[in-house]
Amino acid sequence: MDHIGRIFRPPSEAQSLLLQVTVGCSHNRCTYCAMYDDPAQSRFRAKPWPAVAADIAEAGRLAAGGLPIRRVFLTDGDALILPTAQLERILAALHEALPQLRRVGIYGDARSILRKSPADLARLRDLGLGIVYHGAESGDDEVLRRVNKGSTAAEAVAAAGRLREAGLRHSVMVMLGLGGTERSAAHAAATAELLTAMDPPFVGALTTTLVPGTPLHATAAAGGFDLPDPWGMLAELRTIVAGAGLTRCRFHSNHASNYVPLSLNLPADRERGLALLDAVLARRRQDDLKPEFLRGL
Ligand code: SF4
Fold first, then answer.
1. Helix axes 230-243, 184-198, angle to 10 degrees
2. What CATH number does residue 136 fall under?
3. Quick one: which atom of ligand 1 is closest to the CA of 26?
4. Ligand 1 — pocket residues by CB below 6 A?
5. How many domains does the chain have?
6. pLDDT tens column, 65-90
7. 276: containing domain
8. Is the CB of residue 53 less than 8 Å from the CB of residue 92?
9. Does residue 283 sit within a domain?
10. Residue 5 located in a structural domain
11. Cα Rg for the chain, rounded, in angstroms?
């Protein structure tokens, strides 16, 4: 596979073939993000079709040799920003090369989802696109503005509706601690409201980490941003689990960044999750938390 720079994927795509169809992120301005700071990825671009086609052909040879490739994840950052025709070409070629292919996943943000019409998204679904992973991050527009997310909570809700209308599954990521200590309570409450309005089938809660080299790290070093401590992060997680009116959702906080891994079916497991979080918050014992060296990011 012709992979340029560092390749990221959601935890649930661990078994997927990673096909790079764009390089970098078309936004690349979120203040906390260092995903595409590799010089090879700093300029966003679509990969030329011959390079993508060569990778698909290689995957086809692996499949023909007996490797069952059932899932493919399209990278980088927000590959859904590619024109619909280009994505159709990629999906059609994948299905021709990989007879056992069951699902294709992709990263998309509110802007890239809303640039697609419901008909565009339905065509992509018909060609095998199965799930869109969307970093909504917060329901608090002030937090979204401060971190330069480039989209609002209302746009995230509209994006969720657009995907639902097209019959595409939606996995939403939110970030604990993104409002700092100053907006911690507002961020958590608004994020629970956001998830209620979006009502996706999958949610992943990640923990904000200050990555050297990012604007957020520099702001924190200058005293302008104060990351909540682990107990503050878990209090936010509790607010979200308690308040998000999800109707049928697999809710995870099992990303490497998190202090306490949770895996809940909401709403059924809400009380179990809250009891666990309440116990950890009441004990405030360091050995209840994932050690920092295991949160290696
Ligand atoms: S949209 Fe995602 S990949 Fe792009 S800069 Fe923001 S967090 Fe990073």
1. 30
2. 3.20.20.70
3. 4
4. 25, 27-30, 33, 35, 77-78, 109, 135
5. 1
6. 999 999 999 999 889 999 999 999 99
7. 11-290
8. no
9. yes
10. no
11. 19
